[in-house]
């Protein structure tokens, strides 16, 4: 599996709270779902995988039409900046029976990946903000819950991913009218909330036209985010 940008390998005492495919959540990860905490990439990767699994259980065929990518993919795109290098990295198969990320990307109607503003690949943790980048119908859509703070990073990632998806190195990136956070720590929760909505909309054939924000996303409130945070915490705690 790709190394997770924020995973602190030396800080994993005891057994994991829960594992989903190759994502292991430890107690210190779980505690980040308490109020006032900034999410790390392990939590985001875990719930992305849970969204994928729920979609596959509900509609196996439609679940194959979208791809939720780990934070590490966007980080590599921002760091490599060369499409061919990224393509080579994403073309590696973890097992002979499973397709590579590159193969999955080229067959997906909707790509969803979390963006982080971390710059130093040598740091175990870092960055200060999460946002969400989507790709569909030849266009990138960027959902940022804090005044387009990650707009530049999203464009960097899009420039590297674009050629791999059949677009140019200067692809169109639409800054979406995303719901806005009311504090300095809920950005990761907005990423999860919006990604969850997008998955549901795709399964229900209700995705709006490119560049438009569905009412179910536009109407997400800070209270909704607080409730979702509690829901996610309780779900993991119960495992």
Automatic annotation (TrEMBL):
Record's Pfam families? Peptidase_C48
Q: Which UniProt keywords apply?
A: Hydrolase, Protease, Thiol protease
Q: Which InterPro entries match?
A: Nep1/2-like, Papain-like_cys_pep_sf, Peptidase_C48_C
This entry's Gene Ontology molecular function terms read: cysteine-type peptidase activity; deNEDDylase activity
Q: Which residues form the Ubiquitin-like protease family profile domain?
A: 23-198
Report which superkingdom the organism of origin falls in: Eukaryota
One Gene Ontology biological process: proteolysis
* Family the UniProt entry places it in: Belongs to the peptidase C48 family.
Question: Which named protein is this?
Answer: Ubiquitin-like protease family profile domain-containing protein
Q: What is the lineage of its organism?
A: Eukaryota, Haptista, Haptophyta, Prymnesiophyceae, Isochrysidales
């Amino acid at each position: 599996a790709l190394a997770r940008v924020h995973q602190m390998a030396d800080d994993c005492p005891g057994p994991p709270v829960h594992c989903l495919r190759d994502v292991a959540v430890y107690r210190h990860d779980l505690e980040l779902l308490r109020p006032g905490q900034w999410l790390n990439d392990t939590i985001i990767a875990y719930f992305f995988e849970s969204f994928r699994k729920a979609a596959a259980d509900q509609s196996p065929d439609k679940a194959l039409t979208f791809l939720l990518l780990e934070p590490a993919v966007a980080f590599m795109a921002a760091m490599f900046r060369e499409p061919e290098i990224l393509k080579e990295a994403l073309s590696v198969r973890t097992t002979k029976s499973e397709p590579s990320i590159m193969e999955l990307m080229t067959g997906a109607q909707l790509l969803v990946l979390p963006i982080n503003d971390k710059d130093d690949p040598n740091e175990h943790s870092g960055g200060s903000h999460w946002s969400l980048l989507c790709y569909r119908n030849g266009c990138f859509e960027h959902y940022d819950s804090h005044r387009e703070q990650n707009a530049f990073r999203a464009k960097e990632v899009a420039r590297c991913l674009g050629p791999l998806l059949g677009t140019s190195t200067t692809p169109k990136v639409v800054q979406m009218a995303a719901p806005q956070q009311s504090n300095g720590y809920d950005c990761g929760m907005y990423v999860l909330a919006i990604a969850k909505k997008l998955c549901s909309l795709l399964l229900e054939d209700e995705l709006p036209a490119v560049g438009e924000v569905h009412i179910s996303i536009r109407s997400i409130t800070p209270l909704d985010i607080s409730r979702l945070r509690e829901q996610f915490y309780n779900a993991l705690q119960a495992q």
